[in-house]
Design a protein that fits this description.
alpha/beta; Udp-n-acetylmuramoylalanyl-d-glutamate--2,6- Diaminopimelate Ligase, Chain: A, domain 1; UDP-N-acetylmuramoyl-L-alanine:D-glutamate ligase; Protein-Tyrosine Phosphatase, Chain A; six-stranded mixed β-sheet; about 20% strand
């Protein structure tokens, strides 16, 4: 069956399901495969639970004529998403970067939603499966799509761009992350900047942080809108020091925008949303209200009050280029009782020990009431006595007996470290 034929079925059943545990009736079910499962084995169950059709790639599991057998289910999902994308005549804003892409995506969605019907990537469904699923969730009511694209190996952004066909693009920044998959920073740069090339290929427009010299070095031959702290930028602003929350001042309109985001490192994410909003003719007062009301969640620069302690939960992910500014920002906050609870930074490959040691060396130069370094990678570093805790059982036991009170606590680590477990103690 051709993609056009499958697309005709999709038009009649425009809801995609991939998990029989939360299948929707009359949906189009794709039997995807993973390291520990074979989606083809769920074909019969999917039909029983109400799927209209099942797309699969193993004939042996086909039970009736509602089973569409293809060569490769994942490839078919991606081709179907591309075909759907080619029918759409709306702005597609592609977002990638080492840090801040989800926060930037959410801020842009919040701003644009004040004027348009916006479809944005849910959560962090930003990979070779999530991007097609996001595109296939776009209906004819959507006026702007905001597509987050992540990568942990070479060439991945180019692959995703060939499905999403973005005509607008934002790279938040480029730093050290997923070095196990990329091996070196040069490969990361090449992979991320593929978004610029994809936008250029369709004569689209990129939004670029003018303060980022690396990103600007790739901007000479592309249509661009600039933002940042430089007055010559198309949209420029300044950071206002306001405790531990980021506040932005826009000199051209004499507008101050308060936020619920911690850290000056969120300034560029906020400015990206301001630039995109103004470009798409959202008024400054509306942008101001949207950004001020945005509340971070899922441990992304999230402020939580637990008893008499204040937690800065920045624990959705961590890599060297996000850990260092988070620590420095925390050090600059005026609070007499600051505690750090940091987890390992994963996927750094051969650079892991070096990068973790650099974090420890930075911490030694700063003054914190208490420091807890959790995980086997930090335990390999040369660190002050009492800082490192190798296992979670030890960490929970030790921290629970510290009786930390009236403290401000920064919690940060890679997603797999599940740093939110600390909150169970409070």
């Amino acid at each position: 069956m051709s993609i056009e034929d499958i697309y005709s079925i999709y038009i009649q059943h425009p809801v995609i399901s991939t998990d029989t545990r939360n299948i929707q009736k009359n949906s189009l079910f794709f039997c995807l495969k993973g390291q520990s499962f074979n989606g083809n084995t769920f074909a019969s169950e999917a039909l029983t639970k109400g799927a209209a059709f099942v797309v699969m790639d193993e004939q042996a599991y086909a039970v009736n004529d509602k089973c569409i057998v293809v060569d490769n289910t994942l490839k078919t999902l991606q081709e179907l998403a591309l075909h759907h994308r080619q029918q759409l005549r709306i702005p597609f804003i592609g977002i990638t970067g080492t840090n801040g892409k989800t926060t930037t995506k959410e801020l842009i969605k919040t701003v644009l939603s004040q004027k348009y019907t916006v479809l944005a990537t849910q959560g962090n469904l930003n990979n070779h499966i999530g991007v097609p699923l996001t595109i296939l969730s776009i209906n004819n009511m959507v006026e702007i799509a905001v597509i987050e694209m992540g990568a942990n190996h070479a060439g991945e952004i180019d692959d995703l761009c060939k499905i999403a066909l973005p005509n607008y693009g934002i790279i938040t920044n480029i730093g050290k992350a997923h070095l196990e998959g990329f091996l070196n920073i040069e490969t990361i740069i090449e992979t991320k900047t593929a978004l610029y090339q994809a936008v250029k290929n369709v004569d689209g427009t990129t939004f670029i942080n003018m303060d980022d010299k690396l990103l600007m070095s790739y901007a000479d031959t592309i249509n661009k809108i600039t933002y940042g702290t430089t007055e010559s930028a198309d949209y420029y602003g300044k950071v206002i020091s306001d405790g531990f929350l980021c506040k932005v001042f826009l000199p051209k309109t004499l507008t101050t925008i308060s936020t619920q985001l911690t850290g000056d490192y969120n300034f560029s994410n906020i400015m990206a949303a301001i630039a995109v909003g103004q470009y798409f003719n959202v008024s400054i007062p509306t942008i101001q209200q949207a950004i001020t009301s945005y509340q971070p969640s899922n441990s992304r620069s999230q402020i939580l009050q637990k008893g008499n302690n204040i937690f800065i939960m920045d624990a959705y992910n961590a890599n060297p280029s996000s850990m260092k500014p988070a620590i420095i920002n925390f050090a600059n906050i005026d609070h007499k009782n600051k505690t750090l609870m940091l987890g390992d930074m994963k996927e750094l490959g051969e650079e892991s020990l070096t990068e973790h040691q650099q974090i420890v060396d930075l911490l030694i130069t700063l003054s914190f009431k208490q420091v807890f370094l959790i995980g086997p990678e930090f335990s390999k570093t040369k660190h002050p006595k009492g800082w490192s805790i190798e296992t979670w059982d030890e960490a929970l036991h030790i921290i629970s007996h510290k009786n930390i009170q009236q403290a401000m606590i920064l919690v940060k680590g890679s997603r797999s470290m599940q740093m939110e477990r600390i909150l169970s103690l409070y």
